[in-house]
Amino acid sequence: MADEIRGEARGTAPVPLSILDLAPVGTGYTAAEALATTAAAARLAEELGYHRFWVAEHHSMPGIASTTPAVLLANLAAHTGRIRLGSGGVMLPNHAPLVVAEQFGTLEALAPGRVDLGLGRAPGTDQGTALALRQSAERLHVDDFPRQVAELSGFLDGDWPEGHPYERIHAVPGPVQRRADGGVGEHHRPPLWLLGSSDYSARLAAELGLPFAFAHHFSADNTVPALRIYKQNFRPSAVLDEPYALIGVTAFAAPTAEEARRAVASLGLSMLKLRTGRPGLVPSPEEAEAWPYTPQERNFVDAWLSNVVHGTPEEVRDGLDALVKRTGADELMITSTVHGREARLASYRLIAEEYGITPAASSG
C-alpha cells in the first residue's frame, strides 16, 4: 500500500503533481456541463501524466457540483484506466462509516488498485446544511472523528476484535471477495488519507501513521506549522514507515501573465462571496472586472490571491518549486477553479508541459 501512496516525480517536477477538481459551475453553464468538464479533465490528467485526480465533498454551494464523491468517482473510473482517483475528501461525520466503506469498496472493485479514500472532519458546508445532513444538533458538536476513522478502518479491513458489536457485519464489496465456488478472490482496500486545514488532523494522521493532505489553498498560514507537527510526531505503521504529506495549492497558468491574472480574478470574487455568506456560481472574468469592490473587499481579494500561484507556465513552475522548498511537501495537488472549461484544461496542459511530466507518472 505504501507504493500506492507514494508517487514518483517524472520529468523535472521536484515532487509528483496531482489535481483536485471541484466540478466548478460558472456563470453561463450548467452543472451537467461542469461534470462533463471534470470527466474531460480526468482523461486529460491521465494523458498528461498527473499522479492522482481527486474530487471533494461540498454541499449547498451553487458553484460546486462535487457533492457526492463516490458517485462522481465511479463516473471518472469509467473514463480513465491508469490514473489514481480519490476523495479529497469525504467528510466522514456526514456519513455512517459502513456506508463509506461499501461505497469505496465498490469503487475499488470497479477500479482495482486506483482508489484513494481521503477523509475530512469538517461538514463541507455551512452549519444549517450540516444539520440537514447529520439530522441531529448534537452531532454538529460532538467530535468523535477518531472513533469514526477507526470504525471505517474496521469495515475496510474486515477485521474486528472478538466480541466487538460489529464483528459479524461486513462491508460488501469488502476487502475479501468470495467467489460462487467458495474460493476467495483478492480484493484490495483503498488507502486512507487524513485531510485538514489545521493541526488537528496533522496530529491524528501522525498518530495513526497515515498519509496527510493539507489544504494550503485556503489555509496557507497554517501549512508549514501543520506539516512540521505531522512529520515530527509521525509513528510508523503498517501503511507507512515514513511520513508523506501532500498539499493542495491553487495554481493557474496561461500563455501570458495578464491572461492568468484576469482568469484568477474570478476566483477572488468567488471566494469573497463565499466568505461573506453569498455563495454563487463561479463568476466570469468580466463579472470580476465589473464588480464594485469596497476597499475592504479589495484588500480581502488581494490577500487571498497572493497565495494563488499564477502567471506564465514558467512563473507557475517557479512558484510551485518555491512552495515545495518552503513547505517540504512530498506531493502537490493543483486546483484551478476558474471560470470556463477551456481555460482550466489548458492550464493543466501548460503546467504538465512546463515540467515535462509523462504518463508513466500516473501508473500508480
Helix and strand layout, with pairings?
Elements: H1 2-5, E1 17-21, H2 31-48, E2 52-55, H3 69-79, E3 84-91, H4 97-110, E4 115-120, H5 127-134, H6 137-141, H7 145-157, E5 176-178, E6 184-186, E7 192-196, H8 199-208, E8 212-214, H9 223-233, E9 245-253, H10 257-275, H11 285-290, H12 295-305, E10 309-311, H13 313-327, E11 331-335, H14 341-355
Parallel strand pairs: 1-2, 1-11, 2-3, 3-4, 4-7, 7-8, 8-9, 9-10, 9-11
Antiparallel strand pairs: 5-6
Helix pairs in contact: 2-3, 2-14, 3-4, 4-7, 8-9, 10-12, 13-14
Task: Describe, in plain words, how this protein is organized in 3D.
The chain is of the alpha/beta class and 364 residues long. It has one domain: Alpha-Beta Barrel (TIM Barrel). Helices cover 44% and strands 15% of the residues. The protein has 14 helices and 11 strands. It has helices spanning 2-5, 31-48, 69-79, 97-110, 127-134, 137-141, 145-157, 199-208, 223-233, 257-275, 285-290, 295-305, 313-327, 341-355, and strands at residues 17-21, 52-55, 84-91, 115-120, 176-178, 184-186, 192-196, 212-214, 245-253, 309-311, 331-335. An 8-stranded parallel beta barrel has the order 1-2-3-4-7-8-9-11, surrounded by 8 helices. A hairpin with a 5-residue loop joins strand 5 (176-178) and strand 6 (184-186). Helix 2 crosses helix 3, helix 3 (69-79) packs parallel to helix 4 and helix 8 packs parallel to helix 9 (223-233). The protein is globular.
